[in-house]
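Sequence, please.
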């Protein structure tokens, strides 16, 4: 990415974030695409051949456990990636947030079923105090499909 920055952004010493942002917005690189879903939030963001999104257990019930939350979150992730023009075969890395890290094995069972063989992304699991009663959230970065 840095090699694509206009020469006025190449500096010695500390990087000036304001200059970087201005340069990206005026450079010949592709435009940033956002699909807004709520104030301050996008369903996904696309830029320069990459997609960023966060999936949640949409449609969850209060009695659902980690296994069901994971299934719902992966379904939501499929929808978000499709809306951005890509799919799970193009995920580069994933950050899985669990309300209780002790539930990792239940989540992992569903993850392994969902990820296509040969398309395993880099992945980390992070314990977090999730909002709205969520037990699982997944943030991914994916490559756009080549057209």
């Amino acid at each position: 990415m840095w090699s694509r920055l206009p020469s006025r952004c190449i500096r010695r010493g500390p990087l000036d974030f304001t200059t970087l942002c201005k340069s990206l917005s005026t450079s010949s690189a592709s435009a940033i695409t956002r699909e807004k879903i709520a104030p301050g939030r996008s369903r996904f963001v696309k830029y320069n051949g990459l997609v960023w999104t966060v999936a949640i257990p949409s449609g969850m019930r209060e009695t659902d456990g980690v296994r069901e939350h994971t299934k719902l979150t992966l379904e939501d992730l499929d929808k978000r990636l499709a809306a951005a023009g890509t799919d799970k075969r193009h995920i580069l890395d994933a950050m899985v947030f669990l309300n209780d890290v002790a539930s990792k094995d239940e989540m992992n069972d569903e993850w392994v079923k969902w990820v296509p063989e040969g398309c395993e992304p880099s992945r980390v699991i992070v314990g977090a105090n999730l909002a709205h009663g969520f037990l699982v959230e997944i943030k991914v970065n994916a490559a756009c499909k080549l057209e």
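The longest strand covers residues 91-98.
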